[in-house]
Specification:
Order of helices and strands: EHHHEEEHEHEE
Strand order of the largest sheet: 1-2-3-4-5-7-6
Oligomer: single chain
Helix content: 25-40%
Radius of gyration: 15 Å
Largest sheet: 7 strands, mixed
Number of helices: 5
Shape: globular
Length: 170
């Protein structure tokens, strides 16, 4: 088995990245892992236009984890001046979960935040994903007390819990 390498995504990665993200969050493949939303949410996690928009944003970077030519994880960082960055779309293909790859991707995102000179990294997690929030809390994130509405159509109204972590400058 080859080493997993983390680096910035390229434009040619977007179709495989979209496929991997969908399989990490939704459907039967996602149920193999512990971080899925397959039983909470319906519909696609993102679409190619949304992913292309993030990729084209000059204030954002998408990191991908590769094993050989396969994308097995990702995370995004979006600079939000003057003092914060948003970390999103952290996901790891279920067969690679519990290997430490999620922690490596998060550390990569936090290093970029430190290099940007931001004071805090922020993220949102769908309410009800207590095990995932607990994982972020073990990584130093705290709940801000803020909630944001989840805008995708669902039977019941849903919300995001906002988390943040103070970042030391590099």
């Amino acid at each position: 088995m080859s080493e997993i390498v983390i680096g910035p995504a390229a434009a040619g990665d977007l179709p495989a990245l979209e496929f991997m993200v969908e399989n990490c969050y939704r459907g039967d493949h996602a149920r193999m892992g512990w971080t899925h939303e397959a039983d909470m949410l319906r519909g696609p996690r993102l679409d190619s236009g949304e992913l292309a928009s993030v990729f084209a944003n000059p204030d954002a970077v998408i990191f991908v984890a590769r094993q050989g030519s396969d994308i097995v994880g990702c995370v995004t960082v979006t600079d939000r001046p003057p003092d914060s960055a948003y970390i999103g779309m952290l996901c790891v293909d279920p067969p690679f979960q519990s290997s430490g790859l999620g922690g490596r991707l998060l550390a990569t995102a936090e290093l970029l935040c430190a290099n940007l000179g931001v004071v805090r990294a922020r993220m949102s997690v769908v309410e009800g994903r207590d095990e995932l929030v607990a994982w972020y809390e073990r990584k130093g994130y705290v709940r801000t007390g803020e909630r944001e509405p989840f805008h995708a159509p669902q039977e019941q109204p849903m919300f995001f819990t906002m988390l943040e972590k103070r970042i030391a400058s590099a």
